[in-house]
């Protein structure tokens, strides 16, 4: 990197700048104020066909100031966290607040909800990585995949590494900060035979670089995935079971979280409005949030309102037990915040887990989906229709690859029709899940 990142010094600087913004807002007559500031530094390299395509060294910082004059709100931000920019941002926020209408839900979270303890959650693992070392790892990843017979081309391999500091402060006297890091390695390869060409990818992503899979492992896996798709055909049309591989199953959980998010609910833009207590999944399925899990990708001791985070049970034995609310959305709904300003953090499911082979045997005949395309999900109605690719399953065994088909249903029916969860859990993102077997969906193929 061009310069060392001193996380301790950056944290102290951002904290002092946040406090300065609060002081200025108070002097200018704000009844309340909150400040969010961050700084991030990282490196990303990409290679293709054995050559370096790009090297990017980045350093980003920013600050956002929100002031409240009564129940009028003004927000201004800057990509420069210098003293002059902060003064300007506060002045602009005050000017905006004077012209906005009153909002009964506007304002800081109650002081008693502020995070009182901010433990070390093990999310900061700096990587002293030189540019040459980063290039070497990316090259090794691509070479491992390209050396596999049947791989004819590459869209490249990339390695990224970064760390940063996030600070939130408000006029309750709360000041919280957290350091974090994120590292990833990915590879996209193209396989070819007499049927044509197919592409696929694989990646590894961790807070701690020591936990990343080896470059060779990522490259070989990307090659195997691309080769497995050669000779793909369109499946038959019909209503049949669909098995979502872990990467795709996590997306289904993501659609659920969007539907129970406060912003969608108070705007009446969710198919789960007034859904609390309703049975959505089988009784053996539960879903919870663990925002203080050690070392996890989305762990945090406080949310974007400064509210302490806590374990939340969203699905309890199949029933919708809680919405996902910030302070503002909770007030709009006449409810209490769940500490979810900024979204969900570390979603984990509880269910009897089965091997992928067991799930395949149970589905007998249908499609296994490994890729989804398009944005055909209606959050208001729950209607679901996506382009897909994957594998045809017959007699409980994977037979051949399939592509250019559509799967359709409604999320309510899909959730209720969940008949099994795999033990092949993908732990790379904030949502951890194995494969999902949905008992019946409409498949439109040939």
Automatic annotation (TrEMBL):
Residues 125-230 form the Metalloprotease TldD/E central domain. InterPro entries: Metalloprtase-TldD/E_C, Metalloprtase-TldD/E_cen_dom, Metalloprtase-TldD/E_N, PmbA, TldD/PmbA_N, TldD/PmbA_sf. Residues 33-97 form the Metalloprotease TldD/E N-terminal domain. GO terms for biological process: proteolysis. Pfam families: PmbA_TldD_1st (PF01523), PmbA_TldD_2nd (PF19290), PmbA_TldD_3rd (PF19289). One of its GO terms (molecular function) is metallopeptidase activity. It comes from the Bacteria. One of its GO terms (cellular component) is cytosol. SUPFAM superfamilies: Putative modulator of DNA gyrase, PmbA/TldD (SSF111283). Residues 237-445 form the Metalloprotease TldD/E C-terminal domain. Belongs to the peptidase U62 family. NCBIfam families: PRK11040.1 (NF008268). This is PmbA protein. It comes from Aidingimonas halophila.
